[in-house]
Q: What sequence folds into this?
């Protein structure tokens, strides 16, 4: 509710406005008044133009500010994702298959061809071939490519049926892969060596490995349960068999049965 003081203040304001209007009315009779009004009008127009430009700049800055906020949000999400990734790096990270094989026969053949081209002499070619053959025999072994069982990815593990996984964890499965690669490496290290260079224990292993081969294992790299027990700490119990089942499901290994053996063959991952 308005008080007398409020009403008095309102009337004073209106009276002041009326005095100004009266002054302007008398000022209109002056000669230079119109010129002053035109000048003021021009100034007002200039101010309006400046305000229009300022509004455009402000609007542009608002849009840029919005874009900056979106970029900021994107970076915050990226940082959050990277921090989560750093905090949850799996113990076992899948690596691409390493092509470490060096075929000695092809290498020797290439050296022979190079030597024969340089010499241009048939006799020298024969001597070079004999020399390379002797060097190959002295080494006592030829390098072979031994594939390893590749780690299972998180997506692959999550795609394994629950009845198959049971209580097994991702780390347990890839830890078992480390253990399976040990007998694979030891077996084919022995098989890559010349039989005459082996000691009694490895010679027996060599013969045993050869007896396990059949026409079905041609071109396959495999191990049997006895190799796993001898060269690794992985136990072929219910847990171990469940892990082997998961590896078969994920395309890391396959079984080759026959002649009283269950062979676990390594499968390449592309």
A:
């Amino acid at each position: 509710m308005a008080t007398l003081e409020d009403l008095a203040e309102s009337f004073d304001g209106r009276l002041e406005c009326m005095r100004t209007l009266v002054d302007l009315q008398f000022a209109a009779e002056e000669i230079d008044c119109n010129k002053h009004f035109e000048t003021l009008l021009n100034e007002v127009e200039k101010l309006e133009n400046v305000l229009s430009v300022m509004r455009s700049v402000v609007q542009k800055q608002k849009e840029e500010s919005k874009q900056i906020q979106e970029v900021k949000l994107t970076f915050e999400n990226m940082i959050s994702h990277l921090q989560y990734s750093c905090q949850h790096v799996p113990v076992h990270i899948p690596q691409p298959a390493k092509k470490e094989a060096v075929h000695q026969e092809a290498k020797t053949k290439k050296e022979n061809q190079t030597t024969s081209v340089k010499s241009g002499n048939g006799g020298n070619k024969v001597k070079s071939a004999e020399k390379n053959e002797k060097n190959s025999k002295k080494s006592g072994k030829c390098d072979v490519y031994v594939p390893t069982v590749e780690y299972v990815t998180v997506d692959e593990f999550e795609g394994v049926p629950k009845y198959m996984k049971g209580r097994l964890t991702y780390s347990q499965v890839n830890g078992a892969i480390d253990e399976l690669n040990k007998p694979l490496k030891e077996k084919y290290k022995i098989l890559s060596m010349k039989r005459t260079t082996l000691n009694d224990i490895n010679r027996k292993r060599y013969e045993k490995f050869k007896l396990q081969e059949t026409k079905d294992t041609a071109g396959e790299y495999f191990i049997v349960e006895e190799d796993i027990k001898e060269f690794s700490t992985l136990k072929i119990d219910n847990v171990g068999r469940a892990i082997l089942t998961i590896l078969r499901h994920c395309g890391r290994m396959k079984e080759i049965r026959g002649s009283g053996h269950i062979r676990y063959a390594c499968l390449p991952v592309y």
Observations:
- DSSP finds ten helices and three strands in the chain.
